[in-house]
Write a structure and sequence with these properties.
The complex is a heterodimer of chains A (406) and B (602). Chain A has 15 helices and five strands. With 406 residues, chain A is mainly alpha-helical. In chain A, the strands form two sheets. Chain A has a three-stranded antiparallel β-sheet with strand order 3-4-5, with helices on one face. A two-stranded antiparallel ribbon of chain A has the order 1-2. In chain A, helix 3 runs parallel beside helix 5, helix 4 runs parallel beside helix 15 and helix 8 runs antiparallel to helix 9. The longest helix of chain A has 34 residues. Chain A is globular and about 70 Å long. By secondary structure, chain B is an alpha+beta fold. In chain B, 35% of the residues lie in helices and 20% in strands. In chain B, strands 2, 3, 4, 5, 10, 16 and 17 form a seven-stranded mixed β-sheet that branches. In chain B, a hairpin with a 4-residue loop joins strand 11 and strand 12. Chain B starts with 7 loop residues before the first helix and ends with a helix. The chains are: A mainly alpha (406), B alpha+beta (602). The interface between A and B is large, with 49 and 38 residues.
Chain lengths: 406, 602
C-alpha cells in the first residue's frame, strides 16, 4: 500500500526517535567502564534494535488497517503460543522465566502478547453490538484478558499482567463504559485491601454504599457489587489468618517488593539517591558515581531513568518527561479524532500501554511505585521492548494517517 | 442509566486531566528530589562511594642489646572468596586445589565467615607470596577469589621468646575503652610481655585514608577530595636481652631438662640479660589464627608451657634464701660471723619433733661461714629460732620477697612471705606450731618466691646492697632516629650493713671455693664464683633444684638463677648449668659485646 509520507505525524515520530537516541546514549553511560574508557557492547546492540524497530515501524505503517483487523484473533493465538513456549524453553533470571532464545536473539513473549491483546480487545470491543455495560461484553473481554494474565503471572511477572489489566480497563473506558462502573468493578479489590482492619473496612463500605446510592446503577448491579464487596471483605481476614507466616510473607513481598531491604528495597534506595544527587543540571555525562560505580542496579534496563536523572539532573528528566507527555497528548488527540472505532481503540490502547509503562517505571525509580521490572518504553535496553515501543508508536501514526476512514 | 456511557468529549477531558495530573506528580517528585532535597541525596551518594580506611602504621621492631632483631613484621596473605563473583563448579574446586584444603572444608569456611555477598570472605590466612603470585598471574582462572595482605609479627623460635617478648593479637572487646580511641575492632594489640607493656610505643599512630569504592566494595582508587592523614610508625625498642646468651641457655636447658626457669641479670644495672621458661613454645602460633589442635596441645600439656615460670612460677626457694636468715641474724646482732652454734648430728630435736639436716651424717660444729658453705640446715634452724617469724619476715620482705619486682613485663606474681598474722589467718590465732619458723629459715614451708625475685636479691648481694629495678628496655629508637637511653632505676637497698653483706659474699664464695662447698665444680681459673645451691622440697614430686650465683665474685657482671623442676639437689643439676651460662657469658659474650660497642663508638 502506498503512503503519502508528507502526511505522517512527523512531530510524534521525531519525539519518539529523540527518546530512542537518548536511550542509546544512556545505555552507553550505564555500561561504561572508566578503567578501560569503553562501554560494553550493549549500546551497539541497542542501536541495532532501534534500526530493527524503525524497520518494523516502516512495515507496520504500510499495513492496511483491514489486515490488522482481519488477523487479530490469529495474532492473539500466536501470542498465547509464545507465552506457552516460555514454560518449556524459557530462561530464568532472578527466579522468573520471562524469555527464550530464538537463534541469537532473546524473545520476550510478554511484550508480543501486549500487542496481541491490544489488537484483539480493540477488535472485539469495536465490533460487538453489546452495550458497554452489558455483563456479556464485560465477561468476554475479561476472558480474553485473563488467559494471558494467568500465563504471565505464573512466570511470575506481575508488571506485565498489570499492563494487561490496565489495557482492559482503559479500553472499557474508551469504548464507552462509565468510569463509575470501572470503580464498581475494582471495588472488591479495595475491599480486600481495606479488610486488614474492621474499622477501615466499615468506613470503606459506607463510602461504597453512598457512592452506589448517588449514581444508581440499577438494583441488580448495585446489590451485586455490595454482595461481592461483603464477600471479599469478610473472607479476606479469615483466609489470611489461616495462612502460615511464610505464605503471608510471600504475598506481602509480592504486593510490595520494597519490604525486602536487601533486594528490591536496596534498588529503590540506590535509585532515589542517583536521581536526587543529580541535582538541577546533573553530574555530567559518564560522571554519575551511582551508575559508574555500579551502586545502581539494572542500570541499562529497568533503571535507565535513574542514570538520566543522575547525569543530566532535573533539566534532563524534565526534557524526557515533556517528550513523553507530548506523545501522550498526541495519543489522546489521535484516538479522539479517529472515525473508525477499531482504529480509535487501537490508538487508545497503544497509548495506554506507553503511558502505563512510563508511569510505573519512572514512578519506581523515584520511589512512588514498587519494583515491578517493567522497562521504560523507547529508552530501556532490550530488543523486544524497543520493537514493541515502536510498534505502538507506529499504530498511533497509522491511526492518525487513516483517521478519516471508517 | 444516564451514566452508562460517555461521550468522546467527556472521555478526552477525563483522560487528559488524569494524564496531566500524573505528569505533574512525576515532575513534582523529580523537583522535590533533585532540587529541594538535592543536598541530602548528594551526601548519600558521597558516603556511598567514599570509605574511610585506617592506615596501619608499621609496628616498631624489637632488638636485643647487640641490635639483633627479636621481633619484626612480615607480610602474610589472606585468601578470600567473594560470593557474588563466585562461579558454580569452578571457584570452590580451584580454591581447594590452591589452598590444599578439602572442597567441603572450603565451603564450610565460606559459610561460617560469610559477611555479605559483595564482601571478601576469608578462607585461609597466613598464605605465602607463592600462592599470591599464582593468583596475580592467573587470576582469570580463579573467579571470585581475592587476597589481602596484612602485617604479621614474626618472632624467633626456640629462644623461649614468649617469656619476655609476649605476642600480639586482635584487640578484645574489654580492651577497647571508650575513652581511648587508639584501638578499634580488629586492631592488633600487645597481649603479653614487652609487646603489651610497651604497646603504646610500638604501635605508633594510625592514619586515615579516603578511598573510592564501587558497589561491590572494590577499591576504585584514592578519593582526591580529602587529604590523607599519614600514619606515624611505632618506635623501635632495644632490649637488655643478649640473644646469643638466651639461645645458649635454651639450647643447654632443653638438652637435659624439661621444666624450669633461668634468669640472667646484669647486677650493675638491673638489666635482664636472658630470661627463659621451660618448656617453651613458638610464639608465632599466635600470628593469625591458632590452629585448634596445636592450641589444645599446649593447653592440655601437663608441663604447663603457658606458665611464665621466671615471673609467675612460685616455688619455695630452698637453701638459696638462707642468706636472708643469715643476714637478718647478723644485722640484729643475734650472732656474729664467728658464733658457733649447737652441733649438727644430721638433725636436731625441737620440742617433740626431730628436724633433719639434708646431710644425714651431720656437719658438727659450724660458724656462719661454714653454715653457708656447707648449707647446714641445723645451723639455720637455730638462727630461725633466734629470729622468730616476724623478724625473719620483715627482713625477707625488705629483701624483695613477697612483692612484685616491678619488671617491665606482664603477669608477674608476688609470692608469699608468711608472718604470724598469715599463720593466724590459716590456723587460727596462736594455734600454729612455733617451729614453723624453722622451715622458713631454710627456705621451705609456706615461703614461696619467683626465680626473678631471687635473681634480684642476688643482684643486691653482688652489687654491695644496691638493688636496681629489673628491666628489659634499654633504648627507645623513635621513627625520627632519635634515641632515648633507659637509665637504671634504684629499686631499694638491701636491709644489711656493708659489713653484713661482706660476710655473706665471703660465705657465698666459699660455696664454690671452700673445701666443703656444695658447688665446688664451678671453681675455675678465670674468675671467682659466688653462689648458693638450693633444694626445694616439692610435695608433688621430686625436689626442685636451685642455683643462684654471681661472677666475677668481687665485681660481678652477671647474676644467674637456675631452677630445674624435679631435678633433686641443686648442686647436681642447676649449679653445673649456671656455671656453663656464666662461663659462656663472661668469656665469650661479654668480651664480644665490649669489642662491638667499642667499634661502634669509633
Amino acid at each position: 500500500m502506498s503512503i503519502d509520507y508528507r502526511h505522517l505525524d512527523w512531530k510524534l515520530i521525531g519525539a519518539a526517535l529523540i527518546l530512542s537516541i537518548i536511550g542509546i546514549l544512556l545505555i552507553y553511560s550505564a555500561q561504561y567502564d572508566a578503567a578501560t574508557g569503553a562501554s560494553q557492547d550493549y549500546y551497539i546492540k541497542q542501536m541495532l534494535w532501534v534500526c530493527m524497530a524503525l524497520f518494523a515501524f516502516i512495515i507496520i505503517i504500510h499495513i492496511p488497517l483491514r489486515m490488522i483487523d482481519f488477523l487479530a484473533y490469529l495474532f492473539y493465538a500466536l501470542g498465547l503460543v509464545l507465552l506457552m513456549l516460555v514454560f518449556f524453553i524459557g530462561h530464568s533470571k532472578y527466579g522468573a522465566a520471562r524469555w527464550f532464545s530464538l537463534g541469537p536473539i532473546n524473545v520476550t513473549p510478554s511484550d508480543i502478547a501486549k500487542l496481541a491483546l491490544l489488537i484483539t480487545l480493540s477488535r472485539f470491543l469495536a465490533y460487538t453490538k453489546l452495550r458497554p455495560q452489558s455483563i456479556r461484553r464485560l465477561l468476554i473481554s475479561t476472558l480474553i484478558t485473563v488467559i494471558p494474565v494467568g500465563m504471565v503471572i505464573v512466570q511470575p511477572d506481575l508488571g506485565t499482567s498489570m499492563v494487561f489489566v490496565a489495557l482492559l480497563f482503559s479500553l472499557w473506558f474508551w469504548s464507552g463504559l462509565s468510569p463509575f462502573y470501572i470503580i464498581l468493578i475494582i471495588s472488591p479489590l479495595i475491599s480486600l485491601l481495606t479488610a486488614f482492619h474492621w474499622l477501615t473496612w466499615v468506613v470503606y463500605l459506607v463510602i461504597l454504599i453512598g457512592f452506589i446510592l448517588a449514581f444508581r446503577p440499577g438494583f441488580l448491579s448495585g446489590s451485586l457489587a455490595v454482595t461481592v464487596n461483603l464477600f471479599f471483605g469478610i473472607l479476606a481476614p479469615i483466609v489470611w489468618n489461616r495462612l502460615a507466616d511464610y505464605q503471608k510473607l510471600r504475598i506481602l513481598t509480592f504486593l510490595d517488593p520494597g519490604r525486602d531491604p536487601r533486594g528490591a528495597g536496596y534498588q529503590i534506595i540506590q535509585s532515589k539517591i542517583a536521581v536526587g544527587s543529580g541535582g538541577l543540571i546533573g553530574k555530567g555525562y559518564l560522571e554519575g558515581s551511582q551508575s559508574q560505580l555500579k551502586f545502581l542496579p539494572e542500570r541499562h534496563t529497568d533503571f535507565i531513568f535513574s542514570v538520566l536523572g543522575e547525569e543530566f539532573g532535573f533539566v534532563g528528566t524534565l526534557i524526557v518527561v515533556v517528550l513523553f507527555a507530548y506523545i501522550f497528548y498526541r495519543g489522546i488527540m489521535i484516538a479522539a479524532r479517529c472515525r473508525s472505532k477499531f482504529t480509535s481503540y487501537l490508538a487508545w490502547g497503544a497509548m495506554t500501554i506507553l503511558i502505563f509503562q512510563f508511569f510505573i517505571n519512572v514512578g519506581m525509580t523515584i520511589g512512588l511505585m514498587p519494583v515491578t521490572g517493567l522497562p521504560l518504553p523507547l529508552l530501556s535496553y532490550g530488543g523486544t521492548s524497543q520493537i514493541l515501543s515502536w510498534a505502538l508508536i507506529s499504530l498511533l501514526v497509522l491511526a492518525d494517517y487513516h483517521w478519516t476512514e471508517y | 442509566m444516564q451514566h452508562s456511557s460517555t461521550s468522546t468529549d467527556t472521555r478526552v477531558k477525563i483522560s487528559a486531566s488524569l494524564v496531566i495530573l500524573a505528569v505533574m506528580i512525576i515532575i513534582g517528585t523529580l523537583f522535590y528530589h533533585q532540587v529541594i532535597r538535592y543536598r541530602f541525596f548528594a551526601e548519600q551518594s558521597e558516603s556511598n562511594r567514599i570509605r574511610v580506611q585506617p592506615v596501619i602504621p608499621k609496628r616498631g621492631l624489637i632488638y636485643d642489646r647487640t641490635m639483633e632483631v627479636l621481633a619484626d613484621n612480615r607480610l602474610s596473605f589472606t585468601v578470600s572468596l567473594v560470593p557474588f563473583e563466585q562461579q558454580d563448579g569452578v571457584t570452590v574446586p580451584k580454591l581447594s586445589e590452591l589452598l590444599g584444603l578439602d572442597s567441603s572444608e572450603v565451603e564450610k569456611r565460606a559459610r561460617t565467615n560469610f559477611v555479605s555477598r559483595y564482601m571478601p570472605t576469608p578462607i585461609k590466612r597466613g598464605m605465602g607470596i607463592d600462592t599470591v603470585s599464582i593468583l596475580e598471574e592467573k587470576g582469570q582462572y580463579y573467579p571470585g577469589i581475592t587476597y589481602s595482605a596484612e602485617s604479621v609479627r614474626r618472632y624467633p623460635d626456640s629462644i623461649s621468646a614468649e617469656t619476655f617478648l609476649g605476642h600480639v593479637g586482635e584487640v578484645s572487646n574489654d580492651e577497647i575503652k571508650p575513652d581511648k580511641k587508639d584501638y578499634r575492632l580488629g586492631s592488633l594489640i600487645g597481649k603479653s610481655g614487652i609487646e603489651k607493656r610497651y604497646d603504646m610505643l610500638l604501635r605508633g599512630l594510625e592514619g586515615t585514608r579516603y578511598i573510592e569504592v564501587s558497589a561491590k566494595g572494590q577499591i576504585v582508587g584514592v578519593y582526591e577530595g580529602k587529604q590523607e592523614i599519614p600514619a606515624l610508625a611505632g618506635s623501635d625498642l632495644v632490649l637488655t636481652i643478649d640473644r646469643e646468651l638466651q639461645q645458649f641457655i635454651v639450647r643447654n636447658f632443653d638438652s637435659v631438662q624439661c621444666c624450669g626457669a633461668v634468669v640472667a641479670m646484669n647486677p650493675k644495672t638491673g638489666g635482664i640479660l636472658a630470661i627463659a621458661s621451660f618448656p617453651h613454645f613458638d610464639p608465632n602460633i599466635f600470628s593469625g589464627v591458632v590452629p585448634p589442635d596445636i592450641w589444645q596441645g599446649i593447653v592440655s600439656d601437663t608441663n604447663h608451657p603457658l606458665l611464665n615460670r621466671p615471673l609467675a612460677g612460685l616455688y619455695p626457694p630452698g637453701s638459696t634464701s638462707k642468706l636472708v636468715t643469715a643476714g637478718a641474724a647478723l644485722e640484729l646482732g643475734l650472732v656474729n660471723e664467728n658464733t658457733v652454734l649447737k652441733p649438727c648430728f644430721g638433725g636436731m630435736q625441737f620440742g617433740n619433733r626431730f628436724f633433719r639436716c639434708w646431710e644425714p651424717g651431720g656437719h658438727g660444729r659450724l660458724d656462719m661461714y661454714g653454715g653457708i658453705e656447707r648449707s647446714c640446715d641445723v645451723y639455720f634452724y637455730q638462727l630461725g629460732q633466734l629470729l622468730g617469724v616476724d623478724a625473719w619476715a620483715d627482713y625477707a620482705r625488705k629483701c624483695g620477697f613477697g612483692d612484685k619486682s616491678g619488671i617491665d613485663l606482664t603477669g608477674e606474681k608476688a609470692g608469699i612471705v608468711p608472718t604470724s598474722t598469715y599463720y593466724d589467718d590459716i590456723f587460727g590465732k596462736r594455734k600454729w606450731s612455733p617451729y614453723l619458723i624453722l622451715n622458713l629459715a631454710i627456705g621451705q614451708g609456706e615461703f614461696t618466691i619467683t626465680p626473678l625475685q631471687l635473681a634480684q636479691f642476688y643482684c643486691g648481694l653482688a652489687n654491695h646492697g644496691v638493688v636496681n629495678q629489673p628491666h628489659l628496655l634499654k633504648q627507645i629508637i623513635e621513627p625520627t632516629g632519635e634515641v632515648h637511653d633507659v637509665e637504671p632505676v634504684l629499686a631499694y637497698n638491701l636491709p644489711f650493713s656493708q659489713r653484713t653483706i661482706d660476710i655473706l659474699r665471703e660465705s657465698l664464695k666459699l660455696v664454690t671455693a671452700g673445701d666443703h662447698g656444695t658447688a665446688r665444680s664451678l671453681r675455675n681459673k678465670y674468675y671467682a664464683v659466688a653462689g648458693k645451691t638450693g633444694t626445694a622440697q616439692n610435695p608433688h614430686g621430686d625436689n626442685h633444684s636451685w642455683f643462684a650465683a654471681f661472677a666475677p665474685a668481687d665485681d660481678a657482671n652477671i647474676v644467674v638463677v637456675v631452677l630445674v623442676e624435679n631435678a633433686g639437689h641443686g648442686s647436681e643439676v642447676a649449679a653445673p648449668l649456671a656455671g656453663k651460662i656464666m662461663k659462656y657469658y663472661l668469656l665469650e659474650r661479654l668480651p664480644a659485646t665490649i669489642a662491638m660497642e667499642e667499634t661502634a663508638r669509633n
